Amino acid sequence: MATLIDRRLDGKNKSAVNRQRFIRRFKSQIKKAVTEAMNGRSITDIDNGEKINIPARDLSEPVFGHGAGGRRETIHPGNKDFIKGDRMARPQGGSGGGTGKGQASNSGEGEDDFVFELSREEFLELFFEDLELPNLVRTQLAKVAEFKSVRAGFSSVGNPSNLDVVRSMRGALARRIAMAAPYSRRLHEAEAELQQVLAATPVDEPRAQALVEEIEHLRARVRAVPFIDTFDLRYVNRTKQPQPSTQAVMFCIMDVSGSMDRARKDLAKRFFTLLYLFLKRNYQKIEVVFIRHHTVAKEVDEQEFFYSRETGGTVVSSALTLMADIAAARYPLSVWNIYAAQASDGDNWHHDSPACKDILLKHIMPFVRYFSYIEITPDRHQSLWEAYEEVREVHPNFAMQQIDGAADIYPVFRELFKRRVS
């Protein structure tokens, strides 16, 4: 019997398997704790881990209880008071000896909640787990084609690590049988004939000697057939097949006009920061187009979108027109899944709101998979909200939500991008 001793040193992630098993087992409690932890976070802390508390009662495991009567053998480690044959008194006050963990006591002893620290990756994975881009469909292949390695039979040449031993031995056996078959057949016939010659009286010595020499020659020819040859080797053949990949673009439109004070701009930045983190984490092949607008719309980079201090009047249609032009020029519908998210305080030049509705109905909504609009205002809705309500009545893939403060960002975000059951 062989004994194998693993002398490899434990790595720093030696508990990774147990950690993932724990997260899967208590996933509902951990997700609840993550949701509660998010309510007290600022947007700058979204990309960090978290220490969460899980009530000790949620960590209980099922156990088997022994009823009254019967005989059973139990091993008590560290026992100094009892030997075999002694009788143990049953605890008074019921079938169990515990008093419960949730009861108050005068001994000052208790059990705290279980504290579990989630890493950054685990925290974001749980937070974004049930979110997705709605109506995301596969279009054409992305610019960078994805390939998947698939089995494609067997090959006579290949990497030694891909050697198929069973297939190779099966081929070697078939080859040995085929090559040795004529000699084996004649060998059996010669052996049978030799037995007959030796059994006859008198023995035909010359014939017997000739048969012995022939038998030795045939056995040598059979043994000369190689057990395995390079011709027998078979390697698992793999080929790369192109896989269809989803290609999407998200337009982020933010109002930076004078009516958007610093607090409202901060809320808009928080929403888009959360959206940007969600997109980059869950979709590898997705492009993000940032558009800032006041009276004039401009495509900007990520740095300018989140940190520029530019301000001015309000003409929302300029941003929608720019989005439609960019989508038509760079993102054809046959290749791209187009999404848009817009944040504004709802303040707009009165005569511009009908123009926004027309642009959405004619040039944007027929081509986008999903359009989400958030209005950051504690006041009553203005003309832009009313115009957008008419768009929502026509297109079910147009979503609207209102944000009053920082506490509304996460619930609204999850409502806009929650996973729909198809």
Automatic annotation (TrEMBL):
Region feature (Disordered): 60-110
Family from the record: Belongs to the UPF0229 family.
Superkingdom, taxonomy of origin: Bacteria
Pfam families to which the protein is assigned, alphabetical: DUF444 (PF04285)
Protein name (record): UPF0229 protein BN873_20009
Gene designation: yeaH
Ranges of compositional bias, category Basic and acidic residues: 70-89
InterPro entries for the chain: UPF0229
Annotated NCBIfam families: PRK05325.1-2, PRK05325.1-3
